[in-house]
Amino acid sequence: MLTALIFIILLGLLVFAHELGHFVMARRSGIKADEFGFGFPPRLAGVMWDDAIGRYKIIWGSREISSAHTIYSLNWLPLGGFVRIKGEDGENADPDSFAKKSAWQRVCVLGAGVFANLIFAWLLISIVLTLGLPQPITSEERIQYPDAKIQIFEVKKGTPAQAMGLALGDEILTINGEKITSLKQVSDTIAANRGREIEMRINRLGKEVTTVGTPRVAYPAGEGSLGISFGETAIVSYPWYEAVYRGILVTYNITLAILRALGMVIVSLFAAGTKAPIDVAGPVGIIYLTKQMSNLGIAYLLQFAALLSINLAIINILPIPALDGGRILFILIEKFKGSPVSRGTEGMIHKIGFILLLLLMLIITVRDFSTFRILEKIGGFFS
Fold first, then answer.
1. Which of 49, 50, 113, 132 has the most crowded CB, counting CB atoms within 10 A?
2. Mean pLDDT lowest for which of 96-100, 170-174, 220-224, 302-306?
3. Is the model's pLDDT at 177 over the cut of 70?
4. ∠ at Cα 42 (36, 43), nearest 5°?
5. Is the pLDDT of residue 104 over 80?
């Protein structure tokens, strides 16, 4: 229940930041926003400027209200937010409507949600860098961090490490009863025990766990005999003013990494025999990952939220019908064509795109149930 609540809060913040970007840019472009709400309707309450009394007045319920001013509302479903922009359906000819603005202004309004998600990610990453987070360090830097530890960065699938139950973030304490003090010691000990069972003691979220497994004699290139990658880490934090600058660089690098991965996925779709290099998680998978991050601590959770925000920005800017990028594509077509695409045609394409997105989400969700063994875990409650 707590994980679901954290997920709802994260999703709400990401969507709210996105809609806030649309709202701010619309207002700066001289476009009227009929309503800007936190959460989704039905409306619980709202406030709106009343010219007759010269101040804001409270509005209760979800009744329709016609006003020259924006309604700022609080709604019953806490899943983000929304903005109703005047003329966004293209049927309003008033000068303060979305439909009557220039192509550039409309593109800016649609793209502002994406920009807002990137700004939100930058803010979260800056906070994380201020709080401090385990980061890889070199052997030369170890003297600066007396709390340095040796942690697992990755566990390959189908390896002895996975069979042992080793996981991302585990701190290696001992191997065969010998205290671990260096990376070389880990590598040498594992290599010396290929084909023989070893015992590892690890620290996982403050709890010590002992596990056994047998490093392989023969193994695929790049996996190692045990199937883990590891390194030295330490809690590294920065003053807020340095964290703000570093946050920009980290946000930029993460965005580039996601774009490269997305490009590789697209290439793999057209290259015969090529497997997509990354996995895609749906809502179920994200909830599962949210639980893992919340267990690790607030800094990890904020970093995960920043990653989700960047992903949301990139997905929304793609030229896919029903998304911001798809609507921008129709504006660009209008500029090249010299006249807008018929509203009926555009609306139908967006509806088809929305249905296909829902279908894709359903397929990914079904796969998540298998990947994360959700039904098996639910069954455990009744056994």
1. 113
2. 220-224
3. yes
4. 50
5. yes
SS3 content of the chain, % helix, strand, coil (to 5): 50, 20, 30
Cα–Cα distances (Å) from 62 to 65, 73, 278, 357, in that order, read 9, 10, 43, 29
Structure tokens that stand for 4 in this block: 């679901």
Which structure tokens are listed for 363? 């397929």
Query: 135-236: which CATH number, 2.30.42.10, 3.40.50.2300, 3.30.559.10, 3.20.20.70?
Result: 2.30.42.10
Please state the domain extents for the chain. Answer: 103-132+239-383, 135-236
Q: Which helix (H) or strand (E) holds 309?
A: helix 298-317
Q: Would you call the peptide bond into 41 cis, given omega within 30 degrees of 0 as the criterion?
A: no
Q: How many CB atoms lie within 10 A of CB 59?
A: 19
Please provide the size of the chain in residues. Answer: 383
For residue 143, the 8-state DSSP code is G
Compute the distance between CA of residue 257 and CA of residue 270 in angstroms, rounded to an integer: 21
Distances (CA, A) of 275 to 7, 154, 270: 30, 20, 10
Helix axes 324-337, 298-317, angle to 10 degrees: 30
Tokens 């080793």 — which residue?
Answer: 166
- State which amino acid sits at residue 209: V
